[in-house]
Write a structure and sequence with these properties.
With 159 residues, this protein is an alpha+beta fold. Helices cover 30% and strands 32% of the residues. It has one domain: 60s Ribosomal Protein L30, Chain: A, CATH 3.30.1330. A hairpin with a 2-residue loop joins β2 and β3.
Length: 159
């Protein structure tokens, strides 16, 4: 078994979509980034790549490459899953936390969880997605950005 942790953060700005875990959340601000800036999926990919000893998403999908401009992070997640399969690894479980003052995300968490479970190829009860505010503290508390943490357990095929 292998454990990985991922963390990502993106700034909230006008005229961008807010996409978290592949789900578009209605909000007046969205996340700034080279891709779709899906901070949750980015943290998840970093955790997966880290657990597999494959570096991070910056190395796998550099923001200097125009091929990744505006790309769906779910498409990148599919590519990461292919990389894991190539190493004989599969996801055992994933636990994620979104740090976001607003909008309130509780109503979207079941959809995010189900979608990410589908992309990870595991049952929904092996994926957990939580959201929390930071009580007005720090950049997330001031509504300047959104951060996410992810922890994953990878298992070797046949193990």
């Amino acid at each position: 078994m292998r454990i990985g942790h991922g963390y990502d953060v993106h700034r909230l700005v006008p005229e961008r979509k807010l996409i978290l875990g592949g789900v578009e959340i209605p909000f007046e601000l969205g996340l700034l980034g080279h891709s779709d800036a899906d901070v949750l999926t980015h943290a998840l990919m970093d955790a997966l790549l880290g657990a597999a000893g494959l570096g991070d998403i910056g190395g796998a999908f550099p923001d200097s490459d125009p091929a990744y401009e505006g790309i769906s992070s779910l498409l990148l997640l599919e590519r990461v899953m292919g990389m894991l399969a190539g190493k004989g690894l599969r996801v055992g479980s994933a636990d994620m936390t979104i740090l976001c003052q607003r909008p309130k995300l509780a109503g979207y968490l079941p959809q995010i969880r189900a979608l990410l479970a589908q992309y990870l190829g595991i049952p929904g009860d092996r994926v957990n997605v939580k959201a929390t505010t930071e009580e007005g503290l720090g950049f997330t508390g001031r509504g300047e950005g959104v951060a996410a943490h992810a922890v994953v357990l990878l298992e070797e095929d046949g193990g």
